[in-house]
Specification:
This protein has 189 residues and is α+β, with helices and mostly antiparallel strands. The chain has one domain (30-134, 142-178): Lipocalin (Beta Barrel). Helix content is 17%, strand content 39%. It has an 8-stranded antiparallel β-barrel. The longest helix has 16 residues, at 2-17. 24% of the residues are buried.
Length: 189
């Protein structure tokens, strides 16, 4: 048990130093989009706001989702780094339970556990609100959240509505970072 406590403290310290979102206790279980329609969700989404994430360091962050013949989803995430290079990663998302299609698991690396990808809310045409949370030993959790849009900007009223939904889900919206989507057109395909 002592080793587990040391590991927990080290993980929390590392996460706190890098602005990650670690919290004591188990993951919250916010409601997800009812009657989620996967095919309408496909296409390109631009990141408008997010909780800090160690793996996101650039600007012009976007995701492209493509439905595959086997019913899984190809996930292509890309960002523009400060050195002008494009950083991208490709993975696969799958619905865990067909009766809950807005609850997906996404995998980017073989041998690494899948990460949750929960669509909390979307109108498919303007915005999407995504949440991810992973429990560690039942003692603490790490969460991520993204406000996404079909365009590189989103009206303030929509952002405010999505902040309210995140607050209701137990997410501290004061930790959200605004994503830089300026000067991005045509840079990432």
């Amino acid at each position: 048990m002592k080793a587990l406590q040391v590991l927990s403290v080290l993980l929390l310290a590392a996460a706190a130093a890098d602005g990650q979102s670690f919290h004591y206790g188990r993951c919250p279980q916010p409601p997800v989009q009812e009657d989620f329609i996967m095919t309408k969700y496909m296409g390109t989404w631009y990141e408008i706001e997010k909780l800090p994430a160690l793996f996101e360091r650039g600007k012009c962050n976007q995701a492209k989702y493509t439905l595959l013949p086997d019913g899984t989803v190809n996930v292509y995430n890309a960002e523009l780094l400060s050195n002008g290079k494009i950083n991208s990663i490709e993975g696969v998302a799958k619905v865990k339970d067909p009766s809950h299609p807005a609850n997906l698991d996404v995998s980017f690396f073989k041998g690494v556990p899948d990460a949750p990808y929960w669509v909390l809310s979307t109108d498919y045409q303007l915005y999407a609100l995504v949440y991810s949370c992973t429990d560690y030993f039942g003692l603490f959790h790490f969460d991520l959240a993204w406000i996404l849009a079909r365009a590189r900007v989103l009206p303030d009223g929509v952002i405010s509505l999505l902040h309210d939904k995140l607050t209701d889900a137990g997410v501290n919206v004061n930790r959200l970072l605004v994503s830089n989507q300026t000067g991005c057109d045509g840079l990432i395909q």
